[in-house]
Amino acid sequence: MQLTDAAHALTRRLNIRHPIIQAPMAGSSTPRMAAAVSDAGGLGSLGIGAMNPAAAKKAILAFRELSPGPLNVNLFCHRPAVSDSAKAAAWLQTLRPAFEALDIPQPGTLNEIYRSFVQDEAMLAVLLETRPQVVSFHFGLPPAAVIRQLKQAGMLLLASATNLDEALLLQAAGIDAIVAQGIEAGGHRGMFDPQAYDEAYPTSVLVRLLVSRLKTPVIAAGGLMTGGDIAAVIRSGAAAAQLGTAFLATDESAADPHHRKLLLTADTARHTVMTAAISGRPARCLANRFTALGLGIDAAAIPDYPLTYDAGKALHQAALKAGESGYGAYWSGQGAPFIRSMSTEALMLALVKELAAA
Q1: In angstroms, rounded to a whole number, what is the distance separating the alpha carbons of residues 355 and 43?
Q2: Taking the mean position of all CA atoms in its chain, how far away is CA 13?
Q3: Domain coverage including residue 325
Q4: Pairing, β 283-286 against β 187-188
């Protein structure tokens, strides 16, 4: 297809040839994946929100050894968790039957396993030292002073929005492009306030809404798996498309064997569930024992993110040792039935060819 002016403008700013962004999936995207995407003319990304500053720097430098192309690094800007001992104890009691059924020990406390970028000066120092071309935010924004420092250092800034109000806040803050995250997207919803009502816009509707109301470029995300999907959102006004689940089964993905097997099995790939029971924030996951456990649980009973995730990860790791893979955080978008298993390079070539033919 012939790219729109908006797509041409954003690809030039991002220094990429094609309006394709590989989603920065914490735990699944790797330097090898990001490098292959950037070398093929897209924007490769690393999810560093779950890393400490030293690990983040190592990942960025590993990418640089593999590719001279542009890199996007993604950070979590969630509200720091508020510890509530009574809620934590009640939540651990809710999970107790799962631990007991597997005859595995249960943690006695919940810890804040990820530090929010809103208060992580050491991570900011890493960014200012390594200067990735693009920095993106999920769950909100860091302080205005941090945004100012990153922009003054020459970095382009992206951030996720799930509705118009969030997008308007991002535009007012000077974000360079807004990722419109539709309800179909896998992984965590980018909602600023996880307790707020979720309007649950599908990607196609959210893109049209934001494009009609914003001056800032819009990047479509959620349920996109093919070059034809990319063409459709660009025709709707998006300046680029961000794909995550599409890359989960590539050779360079860090998705574990159980995750891959579910994604590549037709009967399981088509069943996803939005749940907060795994991590403490709403996230789309392949249906499994953990998502079933979360059904019917009052959201108010779930501890803050990422305190809940501490228990979720402990349950998953202990279950794996016991031979049970049903408690994994197997994030996946609703486009999973169309996933392809191949190298990242081959997938990029296929997407570019499909986009051109659309």
Answers
A1: 16
A2: 22
A3: 81-114+265-338
A4: antiparallel
- 166 contact partners, CB below 8 Å, separation of at least 6: 160, 190, 191, 192
Both tokens of 147, joined, read: 């945004």
Q: Do 178 and 165 sit in the same domain of this protein?
A: yes
| In a shared domain, residues 240 and 188 | yes
| Planar angle of CA 95, 187, 103, nearest 5 degrees | 25
- Residue 300 carries which DSSP code? G
Report pLDDT digits (tens) over 272-316.
999 999 999 999 999 999 999 999 899 899 999 999 999 999 999
Question: What pLDDT, on the 0 to 100 scale, is given for residue 49?
Answer: 97
Angle, alpha carbons 217-158-116 (nearest 5°)? 155
What is the gyration radius of the CA atoms in the chain, in angstroms?
Answer: 19
Q: What is the pLDDT of residues 206-252, one digit of tens each?
A: 999 999 999 999 999 999 999 999 999 999 999 999 999 999 999 99
Count of domains forming the chain: 2
Token reading at 75? 């950070």
Q: Does residue 260 fall inside a structural domain?
A: no
